[in-house]
Design brief:
The chain is mainly beta. The chain has a domain at about 185-470: Methylamine Dehydrogenase, Chain H (7 Propeller). It contains one helix and 40 strands. The strands form 16 sheets. It has a three-stranded antiparallel sheet, with no helix packed on it. The longest helix has 22 residues, at about 5-25.
Length: about 475
């Protein structure tokens, strides 16, 4: 190679070396310069300052601009910018929750309400909120978020309509109730809860409660040994009865356990003198289904054969007081009996009336007909209901007691001393006629009765709710049971 070629080669090598030096000078240096400037060769340059000429460009080279990230190129569209943290060329970005970092794994998400980064969460009851104090809890059935609650009676349910209430004693869920006497208690043995039946005697009244316990009040609450206090209201202890019948001075009932008759009051002995004629001396070992108590005698229907038998005065007919044969039952198939003072009347199967006993009261002149439905004998008169449900009365008539109202249909009938009463068939209301010295003709208005019992001068009945109503004479306290 000649000297000329050597010189040219040396120049080219020199130029190449200089180009590399100038290109190397395009790489920025950082350190002492402000944040928005670059350092090069101990100089601080602004981004975009021309640093060198690109000698390698075909057209002789364009200006090279260095951006804030130290990149030197001809593309201004990729000039370096700051990230959300203020770092030039940094990777940090602000996510949906407003957080600035370069970590993609912790990018913000929406909560259950759709709020980016919100604190709301679904609890065990699928309730979405940010309140930890109302997080779902179990109800009394163990159901998360259930509505069941314990009421005052410790009953767990979600039925507000059956929440426990207080009884009359103020006890939540208690069973105490106000009974027919106005008492508040939970005693099922309380005799005042209801009266399945009532029977009015001469001057006393008896009833049975729903457990078969008898209760009597009025005359005879003591036993003075003579009328009117012969112990007819002193019920023996421990009796459980299926039915009872109050007479003039004694009371009889049928034992629930055996059907045998038991009596208390006058007539525990047969002295053949008032008031003791043996009317309380019921035959032992005989099972009865029905009873009727008069003054001096008592009658019952035997369960064995359906025959009526009587005991007390009048088992024989001596024709003198008190034996007029009123306890001597005719040999006929009698289905119902009403015992009185010196007389007894009954109904045969076909509804024919049969009477026996004293002849001088007109009671023996009973109606001659069939189809009678019921009968009741008073002191000296009797009343019956015929097949048309009309009332027919006969015997002595001192105060109009035999003058039954015409055109009225009756469902029940009762005869007392000088009065008679019946229950209307259409509405169950009571009608009374005869003596009215103690308002016997003034029954409770608009009360529909299911039972009626007529005493000497007072009347008692039960309405559909088994509530007791009594009216008339109260000279011995026979109208209302004691507290």
């Amino acid at each position: 190679m000649n000297n000329h070629d050597d010189i040219l080669g040396a120049c080219a090598a020199t130029l190449a070396l200089l180009s590399l030096v100038f290109l190397a000078g395009c790489v920025p240096e950082r350190g002492r310069c402000p944040e928005d400037q670059l350092e090069r060769d101990s100089e601080c340059l602004m981004a975009g300052d021309i640093l060198a000429t690109d000698a390698g460009a075909p057209d002789g080279g364009d200006a090279c601009a260095v951006d804030m990230c130290g990149d030197c190129d001809h593309d201004r569209s990729n000039d370096c910018v700051r990230d959300c943290a203020g770092e030039w060329g940094g990777d940090a970005v602000e996510d949906m929750c407003g957080s600035c970092d370069a970590e993609r794994d912790n990018d913000c998400e929406t909560d259950c309400l759709g709020v980016w980064g919100g604190p709301a969460r679904l609890d065990a009851c699928a309730m979405c909120d940010a309140d930890p104090d109302n997080d779902c809890v179990e109800d009394c059935h163990g159901v998360l978020g259930g509505a069941a609650t314990l009421d005052a009676c410790d009953v767990c349910d979600d039925n507000i309509g059956n929440d426990c209430g207080q009884d009359c004693a103020g006890t939540w869920g208690g069973e105490a109730a106000i009974d027919m006497c106005g008492d508040c208690n939970g005693d099922p043995d309380d005799a005042c809860v209801a009266f399945p039946m009532v029977s009015a005697g001469n001057q006393h009244t008896c009833s049975l409660d729903r457990l078969g316990k008898a209760r009597c009040w009025g005359a005879g609450e003591t036993d003075e040994g003579g009328v009117p206090d012969t112990g007819q209201s002193i019920v023996p202890n421990g009796l459980v009865l299926s039915t009872l019948s109050a007479g003039c001075w004694h009371t009889c009932g049928l034992l629930e356990s055996s059907g045998e008759a038991v009596c208390w009051g006058a007539g525990q002995t047969d002295e053949d003198a008032a008031p003791n004629f043996g009317q309380s001396m019921a035959p032992a070992g005989v099972v009865f289904t029905r009873l009727s108590s008069g003054c001096w005698h008592t009658c019952g229907m035997r369960a064995l054969d359906g025959q009526w038998i009587c005991w007390g005065a009048g088992t024989t007919n001596l024709g003198s007081y008190p034996d007029y044969g009123q306890a001597s039952v005719p040999s006929q198939p009698i289905v119902d009996v009403s015992a009185s003072v010196l007389n007894t009347c009954g109904l045969r199967q076909e509804g024919i009336i049969v009477c026996w006993g004293a002849m001088d009261y007109g009671l023996m002149f009973e109606p001659v007909a069939e189809g009678f439905l019921a009968i009741s004998v008073g002191h000296e008169h009797a009343c019956a209901i015929d097949s048309d449900h009309h009332a027919l009365c006969w015997g002595r008539d001192y105060s109009g007691e035999t003058r039954a109202p015409a055109g009225v249909e009756f469902a029940a009938i009762g005869a007392g001393e000088l009065l008679s009463c019946g229950l209307r068939r259409d509405n169950g209301q009571a009608i009374c006629w005869g003596r009215n010295n103690s308002n016997q003709q003034a029954p409770p208005p608009r009360v529909s009765f299911t039972q009626l019992s007529v005493g000497a001068e007072h009347i008692c009945g039960l309405d559909a709710a088994r509530v007791l109503h009594c009216w008339g004479d109260d000279s011995e306290g026979q109208l209302a049971p004691p507290d």
